[in-house]
Amino acid sequence: MRAPSSALLRDLPVLLVAVVWGSSFLAVQRVAEPGTVVAMLVLRFGLVLPVLGLAAWPSLRRLRRAEWLGGAGLGLVLGGIFLLETFGAVHTSATNAGLIISLTIVFTPLAESALARTPLPRSFLAAAGLAVAGIALLTGDGGLRAPASGDLLVLGAAVVRTVNVLATARARAIRESDTLAVTWVQLAAATLVFAIVAPFAGPLPWTVASAYGPAQWGWLLHLSLLCTLFAFFVQMWAVRTTSPSRVSLLLGTEPLWAAVFGITLAGNHLGPLALLGGALVLVSTEWGRRTASAPRPEAVPAEREPAAV
Fold it and tell me: What global pTM score does this model have?
């Protein structure tokens, strides 16, 4: 039997990943404005790619042409996720962004079930309905108002995340590829798109970088080193030392931490009904995680799922 202290040591790094991912929405709001989102993304991943590239270099040299193309194609989808999440995060509250993006947990089994034409358990469908009700209360701030543009952008990111998970699971070109190498190709392709678009989307990346003060650089490094590099390597380690279901359960606490950071540090104020909506989202996504049983013929390793913003 595994000693409790040993289990705790294995769980703690994964839980820390959920914590830093939960903080990422607040971090984005500290370093980006609507006009600097693309430039910030160039800086964020420009800091990550050299370090990740050094670690991946031996595997990158062995990649075949099809693997490069497959990884680059998925990188375009990943770039769309980051653009939607980041633009959404600067147009809504950190709490809303963190809770809405968690709907990927509900969307993915629904999409898999539709593709496989296999019905889901009624309990999962009930959880999905509860999640929709929770989002309606949360984004309407307890009323009947239409969601903010940022809420809709983050919701779109959750949909594209689902597409990315399904596409990665079915991409034959990279099925047996080294995870580290393919991840580098994906991030490099997304960053290249950001760099090409940046001159037409606002200030250039180096202009934004020169305008950052110590606090903004701290938040940017937090996004690059903790929310991206640290999170990726911990996931790679975790799926080899503990069960995937345990990793998934711990990472599933991300929206809870997003709410904690949004309310305590960002000063997000939620009315009683909006608080109820947020609670419903947390409960329903966890319920859905535990009850979904849609077939996953090509299950996606945890480290290949897109990181948080």
Answer: 0.85
* Cβ proximity of 2 and 43 under 8 Å: no
The number of residues making up the chain comes to: 309
Which residue, chain included where needed, has tokens 């001159």?
199
Residues 6+ apart with CB under 8 A from 239: 247, 301, 302, 303
pLDDT in tens, 279-298: 888 888 878 777 764 444 44
Residue 64 phi, psi dihedral angles, 5° rounding: -85, 165
Measuring CA to CA, which residue among 158, 109, 121 is closest to residue 296? 109
